[in-house]
Structure formats: structure tokens, C-alpha cells
Amino acid sequence: MGLLLFYFINLHGLNIKIINNIIMRSYNLKEKETYMKNILIISSSPRKTGNSQMLCEQFKAGAEFTGHKLNLIQLVEKKIGFCRACDVCMQNGGICILKDDMYEILEQFKKADVLVLATPVYFYGVSAQMKTFIDRTYPIWQNLGYKEVYYIISAGLGEDIINRSLGDLDGFVEHFQRYEIRGRIYATNVMEAGIVRSLPVLQEAYQMGKSV
């Protein structure tokens, strides 16, 4: 076997070092593919340049740097109606009667290994866009699957006002079959849009994305 390998190497002008490099590159590529995750970021700020949205973009940049697959959805750009509590989806295999953008968002949700939920704090709770999104997952609430979860929350006042927003997000995530909350980013005292540009929390969001 050793003589045959030696003959093959010399016949093709190769050497052991090159072959080892080829093997290692192939191994590293397979290892990278194995750990590549499908990440869905749900940004619920009604402001396209809002603070929580900017933190989402930094999280996305960090995760992309490490090679993960990213999908950042800004709910404000989508047509999503309110849940009508008709329960039709419970009788027809999980098909909502509302024909809007939520269908495609749910398809992305099902495929995601990692879910990032981002919201500003409004009246001590999540934004209307986030609550609407959560309610519209009702057609698949019995099969929300396993997700690694991250929270991004921005607030115009101090950290003590975000507890109810956390409760809203936790109440949703606790309906998953399995979940693991891997990280939380809080940007507090950020009333003005875009103010996080000058704050350390922007880099924290980037680093958290890299750590996924």
C-alpha cells in the first residue's frame, strides 16, 4: 500500500504536504458547514433607523462574519394583519385565513435554528408590531420547535422598565417545544433615534452575533 501511494504521488507530481493540505481544507469546510446556523432576526421597531433596528444590523453583521445564514425581517415593511381569533387555523392544519406576509415569515421561522427577537419598549411592553407577530404564530403554536433565542431590547428610560417586555417575550418563547435563551442586549436611556451609534452596546451586539 505504501509503495502504491508513493508511486501515485510521484506520478502526479504531488507531495505529502499538498495532500495533507487538501485533506485538512476538506475537513475544515465540512466542519464549517456542520456549524453553520440559520438565523432569523425579527426586528419590530416602527422606525427604520430605530435603536433596536441598528442593534439588529450589528448582530447580523457579527453573525455573517462567522459564516452563518441570516435573514433580517423588519416587520414595519411587511403587511401583517391582526389575529382575528377565528380558530380556523386550528381546524384546517394550521393555515391562516389572512393572506398576507405572515405566511412567508412563518416559513422562515420554521427553518430557523436561531431566533432573535428585537423590540423597543412602548408603555412598558413590546411594540405593537412584535405583539402582532407573536399572535400570528398561533397557527403553529403547537409546533414552534427548538430554537436558540436572543433578545434585543431598547428603552427610552432605565433598565427597570423593561421587565414587562421581557415577560411578553418569555411568554412567547416558553411555548416552544425546547428553547435556550443564549443572550440579551439591553440599550437603555436611548430615547432619541440612532443614539446607539455612539454607545458601547452597538459593539456588544456585534460581538454577540459573532458568538452564535
Automatic annotation (TrEMBL):
Q: Which GO terms describe its molecular function?
A: oxidoreductase activity
Q: Which keywords has UniProt assigned to this entry?
A: Flavoprotein, FMN
Domain NADPH-dependent FMN reductase-like span(s) in chain numbering = 38-143
Segments traversing the membrane: none
SUPFAM superfamilies, sorted: Flavoproteins (SSF52218)
Q: What domain of life does the UniProt record list for this protein's source? A: Bacteria
Recorded hits in InterPro entries, A to Z, give:
Flavoprotein-like_sf (IPR029039), FMN_Rdtase-like_dom (IPR005025), ISF_SsuE-like (IPR051796)
Q: What is this protein called?
A: NADPH-dependent FMN reductase-like domain-containing protein
Origin organism lineage? Bacteria, Fusobacteriati, Fusobacteriota, Fusobacteriia, Fusobacteriales
